[in-house]
Amino acid sequence: MRNYIIKRLLLIPVTLFGILLINFAIIQLAPGGPVEYMLAQYKGLNTSATANINSGTPNLNEQKYQGSKGLPNDLVKELEKQFGFDKPVHIRFIKMLKDYISFDFGKSYYKDKTVIELIKERLPISISLGLWSTILIYLIAIPLGIKKARKDGEKFDIISSFIIFIGSAIPVFLFAVLLIVLFAGGTYFQLFPLKGLTSDGWENFSLTHKILDYFWHITLPTICIVIGGVASLTMLTKNSFMDELSKQYVLTAKAKGLSEKRILYKHVFRNAMMIIIAGLPSLLIKILFTGSLLIEIIFSLNGMGLLGYEAIMTRDYPVVFGTLYIFALLGLILKLISDLTYSLVDPRINFDKI
Predict the structure, then answer these.
(1) Which of 88, 45, 89 is nearest to 66 (CA)?
(2) 78-96 pLDDT, tens per residue?
């Protein structure tokens, strides 16, 4: 296992290099950019227009940037220098790689903060949502999936399947709106706060008050994410356990007189959990950085998903690549942890042969 871990650790920088290279190339080919964004702001234009390709060719700047017509060339050159676009593409990419080795992601184009400061501010919010949501999803979905496998075809299985189907069919943001209407002062009850992760003056609260206030704020966003995640994991758990329950070793164990509980949790559980463990990294990454984006917007939570979305919309490239780097690095680390968990659940698995 040690050799496998060393190999995977050595592959992490190579994989990160490939991800950054591909995305850097795509960004260079994509129309629009921070210079065009600023030119549009100078002229009071809608910044969404910076995504268009200029069809006119009155001068050199207009061939290069949409919205530069009527603006002095010196201003365009100054903006290019400000954003680093006065240097060749390969020089900019090499500099970015050197900086990223030391986790120096530069400074946001539009916020008066470094990228690492923005990530430090936003990451705890995304981790809070992702961590509690993932824990609750597994605590609910796995026992429910196991019971559905044991009661396959019975009344409990049919009713729970109907509820799960409804839950998976309704978009998460609609659940969020519904919960706001019902419990956050939308129409009926004012039981939970509508925005933020803490109340004003949270720093001055006692420890107990801080904890209660934190969970009070995070309850509704977490419920929204859990509702969307439980459905797929429950059905995956059920199908995995049913597949194991139909195998010959289970029939042999029953013939030997072993109890159903012993067979289920002593023999079947370990094998059935393999596929569920394999999906943990992707589920956590999805919740952390993509699945919670709409939830962050609806509940005014400034997490990593919202940060990345805002950066893409404003062409804030240091933030775009900084968050991409963090997303990719966390994903690779979580994948390695998943493989290690594999070997703990089933010692027969030997990754050193891979």
Answers:
(1) 45
(2) 666 767 777 788 888 898 8
- How far apart are the C-alpha atoms of 79 and 85, rounded to whole Å? 8
Length, in residues, of the chain: 354
Chain segment 9-29, per-residue pLDDT in tens? 888 999 999 999 998 888 877
Q: What is the mean pLDDT of the chain?
A: 78
DSSP string, 99-132: HHHTT---B-SSSSSBHHHHHHHHHHHHHHHHHH
- 162-169 contact pairs (CB < 8 A, 24+): 164/230, 164/231, 164/234, 164/235, 165/231, 167/227, 167/228, 167/230, 167/231, 168/228, 168/231, 168/232
Q: Could you tell me the two tokens for 306? A: 């919202």
4 contacts: CB under 8 Å, gap ≥ 6: 339, 351, 352, 354
CATH numbers and ranges of domains, the chain = 32-101 (no CATH), 115-353 (1.10.3720.10)
